[in-house]
Design goal:
By secondary structure, the protein is mainly alpha-helical. It is 44% helix and 7% strand. The longest helix is centred in the first third of the chain and has 15 residues.
């Protein structure tokens, strides 16, 4: 809808980007949890989503009121499915 509103729905670059995104979202190579490990890409992820922590976190720090604190129960165990 946004591309239609901006008149960019037929832009070749957006079409290519959307096609590549579709491939990446369906290809197991890109959606497996250990992709970052396989590629040896360091990542700093800042999130408020516990599911992101569980999916991507190898080492996590928890901030509360600008201070590092113990993570709440349920965020201490990282489970990669």
């Amino acid at each position: 809808e946004v591309l239609n509103e901006l008149g960019l729905h037929n832009d070749p670059k957006f079409k290519l980007a959307m096609a590549l995104e579709k491939i990446a979202l369906e290809d197991p190579y890109f959606i497996e949890p250990d992709l970052l490990q396989r590629l040896s890409i360091p990542m700093l992820l800042i999130t408020h989503d516990a599911a992101d922590v569980r999916a991507f976190g190898q080492q996590t720090l928890y901030l509360q009121d600008g201070r590092l604190v113990e993570p709440p129960a349920g965020l201490t165990e990282i489970v990669h499915e």
